[in-house]
Structures are given as structure tokens and as C-alpha cells.
Predict the 3D structure of the following.
Amino acid sequence: MTADVRWAIAWMRDTAAKIAEHKAELTTLDREIGDGDHGENLNRGFTALLAKLDELPSEPATVGEVFKLAATTLMSTVGGASGPLYGTAFLRAAKAADTPELTPADVVAVIESALGGLVLRGKAAVGEKTMIDAWTPALEAAKAAEAAGSDAGEVLRAAADAAAQGALDTIPLKATKGRASYLGDRSMGHKDPGAASTALILESAAYTVN
Amino acid sequence: MKKLINDPNDVLAQTVQGFTRAHEDIVAAHDNPVFISRATPTPAGKVALVSGGGSGHEPLHGGFVGDGMLDAAVPGAMFTSPTPDQIEAAIKHADSGAGVLTIVKNYTGDVMNFEMAVELAEADDIAVKSVLVNDDVAVENSTWTAGRRGVAGTVLVEKIAGAAAARGDSLDEVARIAQKVADNVRSMGVALSACTVPHAGVPSFDLADDEIEIGIGIHGEPGRERVKLKSANEITDLLLKAVTEDLGITGGEDALLFVNGMGGTPASELYIVYGHARDLLEGDGVKVTRSLVGNYVTSLEMQGASITVLRLDQELTELWDAPVHTAALHW
């Protein structure tokens, strides 16, 4: 499979399934250092997205259109901080994906744009124990893979693996942004739920393309 | 989990529906997207006040919609901030042409969603100003945290700014007064037990039978320190000291003392806390000229309370005393 419109739809559908499957796990992570609603909120958003995908009258012309649908749906259904964050990320990604099929360089641009949107909306930097800590290594790995001549699927796989590692690497960090920051030192020793959901989403992107 | 609910997914809709029907002379419910407005339109030329946030803090915010306070309230899912489209719809509905003040509690999600909604409303040529409430002294206000949380002090901002809007003040003036209240109010809370979000089904955190959590927020998130249970007076000493030191209130000044219940604490216990807090303030020479005691900013069924002190002057006192007619606050 190539990183085309059908892939984008498959990615969103698989993400919905993965979020539903890991809903309790995400909520448990969030319960430890946040307010315990991350799994529930994302599940509500991606379930709504599934319904929107079912209602599509015809196949969208570009990958970006699929991302835009994801953005507007997540923004109006997720709430919390993750709604505007993922909404902004997909909206930015959509602008970088105005094409029927992503080249390896487009994949890098999509991840870079998503990360740019997250930084703008969340005002967080690397090392603050947020989803940025999964997206940033994902972008670096994607860039390296693209430079090494990988195809779109391989670039996505590299990004997904780096995001998973990035999420694990949030465990010892002390949160300085978001609700976990209220815990100070007590936030250390827990995986950041936003980084964990980012790892799931990017894993899904790589899984569906290969 | 033992709760008086039907389906966890229906809690918000059924709460809004029951609430707005019980108070149909004051408020009205709107669907798709969900928000609560006054039963009658915002009076022409009056600055509109819109607030909102996650549900589970009732009567905040819907209970404060009505004459002399809010024009619309936007409830999100349980403990989850509302979405930009909801907030934008409430802003558009509430605006009568004189502009809109949004009152936002300083939580990352609330701030981001309101920020996006305000951008959308401004694109439609509605004048919007926002005030951020961050009265919780339990959180260090530094670059190392998301900043202080907005908690019970929000009610005082909404009441006083609402009175300013009701008497016909301009958007700039209402915003100035709201900011003045926000600048002069401090709070801190304690939890004796956690609360359970209906769709989570398990308590938001674990607290042993003999433990309390000092510096609790209102979304079921843990506070800054966990200690063994103490007497009401000892807990009050701790909370009030943190509040007054941060506020820097001194002898001779007037204050509003607000003891807020988190939802599961009986009024009797709130009055025990109030009595001792008042003794302490008066011992320092602070004159408690206005008071409020009750469950106004709750955290579902959590046992606990927060203490809020607002520094009063003549302007704020007059606005506090102005008539208000909402479901939860009226005089």
C-alpha cells in the first residue's frame, strides 16, 4: 500500500480501533498524573470520526481532505487539551498533504507541520513530558529515513518506532506543562498519556501503510 | 461505583436537561452544540458574560446564568473543557452588540479551547475580551508549571463582573473589574476523599482512610501534598495561612470570606471551617465584611472544602451587593 487517500482513511479507522482497544490504558496513565479522561476523550473523538468517514459521499481527492475531516471532528468532539492539540496538528498536517499520494518528503512535511501546530497551540518544548516528546523524535527519525532513501512506508515506520521510544522516555521526566505539572516531582515515573496516544496514532500510520 | 445515573454517556445531556427545566424561568438549554443561556435574550447594549468548563463542578457554571451574572455557560464533558464550536456558539448567542467577556479558569484545556473560540468569534466581528482566573495558591506560579489553576474564586469574578455588566459598564470596564477581582482573590482546597468520574468508574486517585490531599484542584487531580487526617481547625490554619500570605492581606483591610464545599461535605463541616477561618482573619485585624458558604464549585461527590479570600474595597463591595438572580446565587 502507498501513502494515498485510501491509506489515510485506513489510518484513521485503525487509529479509532487502537484507541478503543487502549482506552482503559490511556485513562489509567492519565489518572496517574492527570485527570483520568484521556482515553475516554480520544475514543469519543475517533468514534465520531468513524461516523464521519462512513458518511463520506465519495472518496476525498487528497490525503489532506481526510486529515482536515479528522481535525474538525476531533476539535469539536474531544475537548480537554488533547482536542485542540490533535485538532491543530491534523489541520496543519492537512495543509502539507494537499496531494493524492504522499511522497517520503511529504510524510516528513506532514509530521513537521503537525509538530509545528502542537508547539504553537500547546506552547510546550521538548522535555516537558508532553506529546511533543513523542512527535519530536518521530520527526527526526522520519527525516533520517527520508534522507537515506526510504519509501513512504519506511519513513512512517521509522517515525512510529521513534514515537514509541519517545513515549517510553517520558517516564522519568518531570512535567512542566499541562495538568501533570501540578504534581511537580510526583509526575516522575509515569508515562505521559499524550505521548502514549501519539505513539498509538503513529504506529497506526505505519501499520496501515505496510 | 454507586451513582444515581442511567448511562455514563447520558450524564451531561440529562443534567443539562433537568437543570434547565427546573429553572426554566431563568435559563434555557441549547443543543448541537450544547450550551446554556438565559431564558430571555441578553438585554440590548449590555456586555455579555460567557463562562464554561468541564462538567462535574455544578452549580458552576450553569447555576450562575441569569440577571446580574452570566449570559451563557458552556458545559464540557465531565471534567473536560468544552470545545471551540460550543464556546463560539454561546458567544454568538449571548452577544447583544456590546461585546462579550469570557471568564476562563486557568486549565490548559480550557485556555486552548476558549482561545480558539475567541479567534473564531473575532473573525465574525464580535468584540471579545477574556479574563483568566488563577486563584489557586496550591500551585506554584512559575515557568515550571502550567500556572495556577482557576478554582472557587471564579464564582466571585462572575458575580462581580456580572453586576458591572448589568449596570451598563462598557466591555473594557467590565474586563477591568473582572481582572481586579481575579488579582485580589486567592483560594486553596483540601480533599478528604477522591471522586469518581462516571465513565471512568474508579476514583480519580487513591486516598487511604486516614489521609487527606492538601492543595487539591477541582478536576479530581491530586494536590501538592498528602498528609494524615487533621482536625478542622488544623486544616483551616494550613489553608488560610497559604491564602492570606499569598494575597498579602493585612489588618484593617476588608475581605470576603468564602468557604466552598467540594460536593460531598456537609454544610455543618463547612461552617466549622468558616468559623475558625473568620477567627483567624479577625485575629489578624482583617474585617470580614461579606461571606459565602456552600457548595458552589464542586468536584462531583468529593469530600473536602476550599477557602477563598477576596480583598474588598467599596467598588467591589457595591457590585457584590447588587441584585443577582440565578439558580444558585440570588439576592
User: Anything to note?
Assistant: Residues 5-209 of chain A form a domain with the Serine Threonine Protein Phosphatase 5, Tetratricopeptide repeat fold (CATH 1.25.40.340). Chain A touches chain B through 31 residues (CB under 8 Å). The radius of gyration of chain A is 16 Å.
